[in-house]
Amino acid sequence: MVHEQLDKENVSSISYFPEFLKTNGSSAYRGVSHASTIVGREVLGNSCHIIIRNSWGGCSNKAGRNQYSNNVTKCENGYLWVSEQKLLPHLDGITYLKQ
């Protein structure tokens, strides 16, 4: 459904369980759904990556270390590239607005 909405240029967001994204494996995120806006997709290597805009901001934590796990392929200015295969098991829902 994500691809269909991107093809139609509809504004879309996903809700997901974010613990798989964080480096510290914090249980604070376990069972809590988080929402992000989908801004695109890109094929990197042999897999499709969903590009999401995350409200958590930049790629580094307050100590200057990468705050994301290796499940995030690329991170730039609050945009995260996450392999579709790694994201799907953690997906909770999708919402979109028709243009």
Structure, described:
The model has no long low-confidence stretch (mean pLDDT 83). The radius of gyration is 13 Å and the shape is globular. It has two helices and six strands; from the N terminus they run αβββββαβ. It has a six-stranded antiparallel beta sheet. It starts with a helix and ends with a strand. The chain is 10% helix and 41% strand. The protein has helices spanning 2-7, 84-87, and strands spanning 11-16, 34-44, 47-53, 72-76, 79-83, 91-97. It is mainly beta. Strand 2 (34-44) and strand 3 (47-53) form a beta hairpin.
Report strand order across the widest sheet. Answer: 4-5-3-2-1-6
**Strand tally, please?**
6
Low-confidence segments, given as residue ranges, are none
Q: Portion of residues in helices?
A: 10-25%
Overall shape: it is globular
- Our count of helices gives 2
Compute the separation of the termini in Å: 16 Å
- Class by SSE composition: mainly beta
Order of helices and strands: HEEEEEHE
The mean pLDDT is 83
Content of β-strand: 35-45%
Q: What Rg, in angstroms, do the CA atoms define?
A: 13 Å
Main sheet, how many strands, which sense, barrel?
6 strands, antiparallel
Topology:
Layout: H1 2-7, E1 11-16, E2 34-44, E3 47-53, E4 72-76, E5 79-83, H2 84-87, E6 91-97
